[in-house]
Design a protein that fits this description.
single chain, 2 helices
Length: 72
């Protein structure tokens, strides 16, 4: 879903910082800790995707209502 819009420089910088930080942390962890970090990152990503879908649905419903109201 993220590829449908242009990402701001703030988003791109935050994403790069996140990736760099996770990579740096991963290098310092043992195997069990790396698995836990991966679970945290995966959960965070899933939470972000769910939020994006929810926002899209709300926006789509609002847009549909606006269009329906325009034809009344």
């Amino acid at each position: 879903m993220n590829h449908f819009f242009k990402k701001s420089h703030i988003y791109l910088n935050a994403a790069a910082e996140f990736t760099q930080s996770v990579d740096a942390l991963r290098r310092t962890l043992d195997q069990q800790q790396r698995r836990l970090l991966l679970r945290i990152v995966d959960s965070s990503t899933l939470k972000e995707e769910c939020g994006a879908r929810s926002a899209f649905r709300r926006g789509f419903r609002l847009g549909s209502r606006l269009i329906a109201d325009a034809f009344r």
